[in-house]
């Protein structure tokens, strides 16, 4: 079990107040960059950035491919904040810490959260380099009690028992698919179910077979806790997985997943993911809060 060392409302507020005092940017959209996808922040104009180590209360990134900077700026005139680097449970952080920035974003006035990640493809139709719009997730750590909402509920953020049906906004998913067509990359684009596992090891073959049989399309070691915390506090959520590797599901397959090639695939698709996210931000209805319609 995780220790229930919760973070108080005042601590989130203190970090949000500090950031407000340091920048004039007032973001409406927050973007979390997945492994190898830090270049999403490069598209921001009028940038102002802060090293995580300089932000009171922020954890620091320890994983290669996560620069550890919070970047404020604009995408096509829309105010955004971008996490160049996220926090994972396997780094030793509690789920309260890994999701700390999400509540800070809420207090900063953010309305929409865009989460991105690198993930292994399990579905037969997914190839390395494909983009999977996340339709739903399976939060494996949550199923055994590791949940960022464990402990006393903070009613100022949201209800004790928040629904997760419809947590990936349907309108944004449709818009992203349309944008993919217009960018000429619809051949790369899919919709599917992401599963979070604890990591840091990649899956054994038996685990991969199990996940596949359960209907999981892509697997990674992040995202679900951020989405749960965002949904709890009323943020609209969009998520995408870059399929950076095929998960090995056969004893005859001599391939194996490795972090370096995952970073390389991020590099390869960086421009496409950047264009997709930029267009999504510029075309989304910025005042629309979560629609929470079931899938
Ligand atoms: O989920 P993100 O942060 O994109 O990273 C994914 O890639 C890393 C493994 O290479 C793991 O951290 C996994 O979760
Ligand atoms: O194959 C994978 N498994 C788990 N996490 C991952 N993150 C990128 N690829 C993978």
UniProtKB/TrEMBL annotation:
GO terms for molecular function: purine-nucleoside phosphorylase activity. Pfam families: PNP_UDP_1. It catalyses: 2'-deoxyguanosine + phosphate = 2-deoxy-alpha-D-ribose 1-phosphate + guanine; inosine + phosphate = alpha-D-ribose 1-phosphate + hypoxanthine; 2'-deoxyinosine + phosphate = 2-deoxy-alpha-D-ribose 1-phosphate + hypoxanthine; guanosine + phosphate = alpha-D-ribose 1-phosphate + guanine. GO terms for cellular component: cytoplasm. The keyword Transferase applies. Pathway: Purine metabolism; purine nucleoside salvage. The keyword Repeat does not apply. GO terms for biological process: purine ribonucleoside salvage. SUPFAM superfamilies: Purine and uridine phosphorylases (SSF53167). Residues 29-281 form the Nucleoside phosphorylase domain. CDD domains: PNP-EcPNPII_like. Homotrimer. Belongs to the PNP/MTAP phosphorylase family. Catalyzes the phosphorolytic breakdown of the N-glycosidic bond in the beta-(deoxy)ribonucleoside molecules, with the formation of the corresponding free purine bases and pentose-1-phosphate. Preferentially acts on 6-oxopurine nucleosides including inosine and guanosine. This is Purine nucleoside phosphorylase.
């Amino acid at each position: 079990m995780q220790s229930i060392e919760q973070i108080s409302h005042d601590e989130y507020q203190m970090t949000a107040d500090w950031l407000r005092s340091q920048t004039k940017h007032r973001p409406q959209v927050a973007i979390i960059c997945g492994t190898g996808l830090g270049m999403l922040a490069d598209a921001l104009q009028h940038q102002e950035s802060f090293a995580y180590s300089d932000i009171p209360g922020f954890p620091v990134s320890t994983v290669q491919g996560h620069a550890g900077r919070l970047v404020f700026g604009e995408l096509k005139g829309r105010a955004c904040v971008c996490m160049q680097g996220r926090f994972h449970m396997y780094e030793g952080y509690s789920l309260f810490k890994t999701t700390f920035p999400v509540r800070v974003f809420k207090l900063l006035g953010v309305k929409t959260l865009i989460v991105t990640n690198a993930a292994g493809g399990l579905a037969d139709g997914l190839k390395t380099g494909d983009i999977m719009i996340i339709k739903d997730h399976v939060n494996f750590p949550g199923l055994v009690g590791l949940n960022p909402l464990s402990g006393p509920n903070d009613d100022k953020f949201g209800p004790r028992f928040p629904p997760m049906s419809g947590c990936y906004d349907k309108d944004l998913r449709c818009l992203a698919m349309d944008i993919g067509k217009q960018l000429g990359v619809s051949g790369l684009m899919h919709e599917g179910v992401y599963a979070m596992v604890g990591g840091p090891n990649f899956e054994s073959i038996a685990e991969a077979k199990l996940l596949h049989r359960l209907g999981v399309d892509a697997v990674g070691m992040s995202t679900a806790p951020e989405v749960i915390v965002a949904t709890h506090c009323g943020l609209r959520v969009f998520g995408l997985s870059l399929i950076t590797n095929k998960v090995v599901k056969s004893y005859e397959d001599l391939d194996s997943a490795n972090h370096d090639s995952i970073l390389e695939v991020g590099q390869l698709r960086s421009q496409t993911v950047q264009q997709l996210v930029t267009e999504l931000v510029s075309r989304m209805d910025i005042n629309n809060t979560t629609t929470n319609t079931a899938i």
